[in-house]
Write a structure and sequence with these properties.
With about 220 residues, the chain is of the alpha+beta class. It contains 5 helices and 10 strands. Helix 2 packs parallel to helix 3. The protein is elongated.
């Protein structure tokens, strides 16, 4: 298992929200995962579940945020110290994604526990909370995010559809098209590498018979298809 460095230009997250439940010695462990890009969004998940599962004894949480995973928080919410939030956070940090590396971020996890009357002990709680998050992660489709250079490609109304199709077929990430009375602008995302940008300019010139150059729009993190 290898963790990516802070200088990496890509990482893995999830889309939306996913739920999974397990039962251990009559205690219910309901795990909810939600994509969260800020601490406020992560804490909103905790608040939402406190309202939804208001009669549960514990709402333990962990979240990892930012491309470099620099924001990491966990909370035991009444469980013995270190038996809930920490193992949940560890499960997120150590999760190997489909890329074969542990690079999961922008994700919040909450485990709602309904006590079943049987004490699990410290070791049992650690295993239960860790396994709850790990099993939930196995059900959540992954989304890869990459730092990309964005460009606007001008095109005539009559050419926009053909050009978009040609670019997508060639593997270019097309984020969408904007239409106005004077024409269309295709928004594309390119890997932030000079050679990739140069190759795209050549490709675009061939597709448009030497048409206008793409307009730089800056650099952003983009969900890859």
């Amino acid at each position: 298992m290898s963790e990516r460095s802070a200088s990496s230009s890509s990482y893995t997250t999830i889309s939306g929200e996913y739920r999974h439940e397990i039962e251990i010695k009559r205690s219910r462990f309901i795990t909810v995962l939600r994509r969260s890009e800020t601490e406020d969004q992560a804490r909103e998940l905790v608040a939402d579940l406190r309202r939804e599962f208001h009669d549960a004894r514990h709402h333990c949480s962990a979240f990892v945020l930012a491309p470099d995973r620099s924001v990491q928080r966990s909370n035991d919410d009444g469980e013995p110290s270190g038996t809930a939030g920490a193992p949940m956070l560890d499960a997120l940090l150590r999760r190997d994604t489909t890329r074969g590396v542990a690079d999961l971020s922008d994700i919040a996890a909450v485990v709602v526990r309904y006590f079943g009357g049987v004490l699990l002990g410290a070791g049992g709680l650690v295993r239960a909370y860790s396994e709850s998050v790990s099993q939930a992660m196995a059900t959540a489709p992954e989304v890869r995010r990459q730092r990309m250079k964005l460009y606007a490609v001008p095109a005539a109304h009559t050419e926009a559809g053909r050009l978009e199709n040609e670019l997508r077929t060639a593997g270019t990430v097309v984020l969408g098209s904007d239409y106005s009375g004077t024409g269309a602008r295709l928004r594309v995302a390119l890997e932030d590498v000079p050679e990739v940008v140069a190759a795209f300019r050549q490709q675009l010139a061939a597709l448009t018979s030497g048409g206008p150059d793409p307009e730089p729009l800056g650099t952003e993190w983009v969900d890859l298809p």
